[in-house]
Design brief:
six-stranded parallel sheet; 138 residues; Rossmann fold; alpha/beta; disordered C terminus; 6 helices
Length: 138
């Protein structure tokens, strides 16, 4: 089964790199890209896009990832959302969970970890990357 994915990331090089890497996994098809949360919502309105998962940068212009996740949960409940963030901020994780996300993955993780997170979320799990936060609290 193929995972239909949309990517929302404001940095074109990062977005293109994510697309290329994730599509090499073989079971992931990137069906759309957006540079901010508002573009993402407009993309999701298109019936031909119909993603299973949205991989969304936490911090973007126009509409941030947490706000976009909240709107997706309300308007597109069949789309799972994974927040991709450079920040290990527990408040941001709490805000993301409150917005209805299915995953929160740090950008400093390897690509294989991201692919595993996508597959786990599609299988119905909630994936929250807190490993480094836990290690820092010891």
């Amino acid at each position: 089964m193929s995972i239909r994915l949309v990517i929302a990331e404001d940095h074109p090089l990062s977005r293109e790199g994510l697309r290329q890497y994730l599509e090499m996994a073989g079971d992931i098809e990137v069906v759309g890209e957006a540079s901010n949360g508002q573009e993402l919502l407009e993309l999701l309105e298109r019936p031909e896009v119909a993603p299973d998962v949205a991989l969304v940068d936490a911090r973007m212009p126009v509409m941030d990832g947490i706000s976009a996740a909240r709107a997706i949960a309300e308007r597109f409940p069949g789309v799972a959302v994974i927040i991709l963030s450079a920040f290990e901020d527990t408040q941001q994780v709490d805000n993301a969970l409150g917005a209805g996300v299915h995953g929160y993955v740090l950008k400093d993780r390897g690509g294989e970890e991201l692919i595993r997170a996508l597959r786990r979320v599609l299988a119905g799990e909630t994936v929250i990357d807190t490993e480094r936060q836990s290690a820092a609290g010891r």
